[in-house]
Design brief:
Length: about 70
């Protein structure tokens, strides 16, 4: 996904709240090239990588599905 450029922490407990990631593919986020990962999405953290859950959701509403 990219590199961690900022870690946002809660002011009172100094616990990690969010990671800001600089995208390696700016086309994924045309506005800023950055992704924000909430701590609730994190599965594991190592010095080399952060594994996050996939939060893509399938849309089952036919009104939102493109027609062919």
């Amino acid at each position: 996904m990219g590199r961690v450029i900022k870690v946002e922490m809660t002011p009172d407990s100094q616990a990690v709240q969010k990671y800001v990631i600089q995208s390696i593919n700016p086309l994924k986020d045309l506005l800023s090239g950055q992704l924000i990962i909430d701590i609730s999405q994190v599965i594991s953290v190592t010095p080399e990588k952060i594994i996050v859950e996939d939060n893509w959701k399938k849309i089952n509403d036919p009104a939102l599905t493109p027609s062919t």
